[in-house]
Design a protein that fits this description.
Layout lengths: L3 H11 L6 H14 L13 H16 L17
Helix pairs in contact: 1-2, 2-3
């Protein structure tokens, strides 16, 4: 299974350039979303906190273009 830390390590090793920055952001965001896709199954009741987290992940590229942007941070994963 691909993890976010593995992807960030790969990005650092390949020294992706700035034109790839949005692609890097989307790649990590997609992994984080895929880790929670099971919650969207019809037999699972997703809490509002998880719905908000997933929406914030989907919307992150509306605010940021790179993981290196000032004030960038992925949303905090709920603990509930």
């Amino acid at each position: 299974m691909t993890t976010v830390s593995n992807i960030i390590e790969e990005i650092n090793q390949k020294k992706w350039n700035d034109t790839d920055a949005l692609g890097q952001l989307r790649l990590i965001r997609n992994v984080l979303l895929s880790e929670t896709d099971w919650m969207a199954n019809s037999d699972v009741t997703m809490s509002d906190a998880w719905k908000t987290y997933r929406q914030e992940l989907r919307d992150i590229t509306k605010t940021f273009n790179s993981i290196n942007d000032k004030d960038f941070a992925f949303p905090t994963k709920p603990t509930e």
